[in-house]
Amino acid sequence: MRRHEDDMRYPPELTGRVGFRNFTWTTEAIADWEHVWNALWACGIKWEWQNSDRYVRRRGEIFDRFAVHNDAVKLDMAIPLPGIHVIKKLNDWLLDAHISDHNATEATNLIRKWIQNYVE
Questions:
Q1: Partner residues linked to 76 by β-bridges
Q2: What tens digit of pLDDT does each residue of 94-118 get?
C-alpha cells in the first residue's frame, strides 16, 4: 500500500496521529551526499571509521555499498553514510565553528539543502 493511500484512509485530522518514517539512503540521496561530503572534506572534516559504519564507492553512475569490518585502512576515497543525527551534528558544528571561508558556507548550504530534500 502506498503512503498517500494510507493517509487518505486514515487522515491525521481524524486520527490525531502524525506519521514518521525511517530515512533510507537512495541513489539520489547518495549522489547529492557525495557533493556535501566533498565540501565537508574541504573544511577539514574527516571521518573516524568504526566497524559497521556504512560507506559507498562510486562505480561510474552507480554506488557500491559496504559496511566497515576491520578494513578501515583500505577506505581511501570512500564516502561515509552517516546517520541523520550525525549529519545534523555536522551542520550544527559548522554553524558554531565560526569558520569564515567560502568552503564552510558552501558546506552549510549543501547540508541544509540535502536535509530539506531527503529528510524532512
A1: none
A2: 888 777 778 888 999 999 999 999 8
Q: Using CA of residue 71, residue 64, residue 35, residue 28, what is the dihedral sign?
A: negative
Could you read off the pLDDT of 11-32 as tens digits, one per residue? 666 767 777 777 889 999 999 9
Domain residue spans of the chain? 23-118
Q: Are 88 and 119 in contact (CB under 8 A)?
A: no
70: left (phi over 0), alpha (psi -120 to 50) or beta: left
End-to-end CA distance of the chain: 21
Which of 55, 67, 116 lies closest to 91, judged by CA? 116
Q: CA torsion, points 92, 110, 34, 96, in degrees to nearest 10?
A: -20
Indicate if the pLDDT at residue 77 is higher than 50. Answer: yes
Residue 98, CA distances (Å) to 35, 77, 94, 101, 109 in order: 21, 27, 7, 9, 14
Distance between CA 50 and CA 12 in Å, rounded?
40
